[in-house]
Amino acid sequence: DAKTTQPPSMDCAEGRAANLPCNHSTISGNEYVYWYRQIHSQGPQYIIHGLKNNETNEMASLIITEDRKSSTLILPHATLRDTAVYYCIVKTPRGSTLGRLYFGRGTQLTVWP
Amino acid sequence: NAGVTQTPKFQVLKTGQSMTLQCAQDMNHNSMYWYRQDPGMGLRLIYYSASEGTTDKGEVPNGYNVSRLNKREFSLRLESAAPSQTSVYFCASSEALHRGQGTDTQYFGPGTRLTVL
C-alpha cells in the first residue's frame, strides 16, 4: 500500500471550509484514497473514499488530482464537533491485505469559534 | 442496530494476569479486526479475521490470541499481560466479501482502555 504524507496539524474557523491535504505520490492504479477521522477518545469514523473522480457525501468532499498523487478532503462548513485527527489512507480494497487499514499519525484539525 | 460493541470499556490488570476483550457486530459483516492505539500514535493492526473460521496476524500480533467465535463475535485474548500492552484497543468490522465485491468501509467500536501495572 502507498505511503501518505499529511501535515501534523491545522486549524480552521467555525463556519469556514476546512481543506485537509494528503500526498500519496507512490499510489498505484488500483489503490483507493480513504479518509477516516477520530474524535478524541472515540473509535475512528469513516468519512469518504474515492479512486480518481471527485466524490461528495453528506459529510465531506474528496478532490483527487488528475495524476492521483495528492488529494484534499474538504469539510465545507466546519463546526466545533469536527475537531479531530483526520487520517488519509491509500490502499487496494481487496488483495492480500484484504481490507486492512494502515493508519499513520494523521492531521489534528482544530476548529475554533 | 448497535453497530460494533466492545466490552469492557475500561480494565486494569496486573502483570501476568490474563483477560479477554470481547467484540460483537450486528451488521452481518464478514471481516473483523483488532487494532491497538498508543498515545500520540495511529492505529496498528493486531489480528484480523477475513471471514468466519479464519484469522490472520497483523502488524503487532505478539502477546495476543484471537478467536472468531461466530460471524458476529471476535475476541482478543491476552494470556500473560505486560505493561507494554497498556493501550486502547479498537475492534472494527467490514463487509469485505469476495474480491471486487462489497465495501471495505470499516466501522469501529468505542474502544477498551487497558492498563497493565
Please, could you describe this protein's structure?
The complex is a heterodimer of chains A (113) and B (117). Chain A is mainly beta. Chain A has no helices and 9 strands. In chain A, the strands form 2 sheets. In chain A, strands 1-9-8-3-4 form a 5-stranded mixed β-sheet, with no helix packed on it. Chain A has a 4-stranded antiparallel β-sheet with strand order 2-7-6-5, with no helix packed on it. In chain A, β6 and β7 (70-75) form a beta hairpin. Chain A is globular, with a radius of gyration of 13 Å. Chain B is mostly beta strands and 117 residues long. Chain B is 0% helix and 47% strand. Chain B contains no helices and 11 strands. Chain B has strands at residues 4-7, 10-13, 19-25, 31-37, 43-49, 56-57, 65-68, 74-78, 87-94, 107-108, 112-116. In chain B, strands 2, 4, 5, 6, 9, 10 and 11 form a 7-stranded mixed β-sheet that branches. Chain B has a 4-stranded antiparallel β-sheet with strand order 1-3-8-7, with no helix packed on it. Chain B is globular. At the A-B interface, β3 and β4 of A face β4, β5, β9 and β10 of B.
